[in-house]
Amino acid sequence: MALYEHIFLARQDISAQQMEALTDHWKEVLKTNGGSVEKVEQWGLKTLPYKIAKNRKAHYALLNVSAPAGALFEMERQMRIHEDVIRYMTIRVEEHEDGPSAMMRKSDRDDRRGDRGDRNDRPPRGNREEKSNSKSEGA
Hints:
Helix content is 38%, strand content 35%. By secondary structure, it is α+β, with helices and mostly antiparallel strands.
């Protein structure tokens, strides 16, 4: 069977529990058509780069899928009809990525960014008042 990464965006006004139920529904659609979902990542509610169907935010989810093409076509057909799904994209891959996806690693990096530690790598800046007074006298 072919391997795919499938990402979909759901409306901002559904809850996290409804998003999980929606993900479980798509997993069941794939399973009944002969496919399987190997990994699910809920990326949470994120701001969209532009408004989509009057939504400024959306719930993001990633599914690593192993399924025949017919199963994906059926899932995408149902997503086009479903009122909570505002966008989706499926990409065929050679192999699934081990560990967390790039979006999940990005959030880990953002958490570490806040702690800059001590800044002993910089030389002292000296007295700023003396520098500003010398500039104003020369003008």
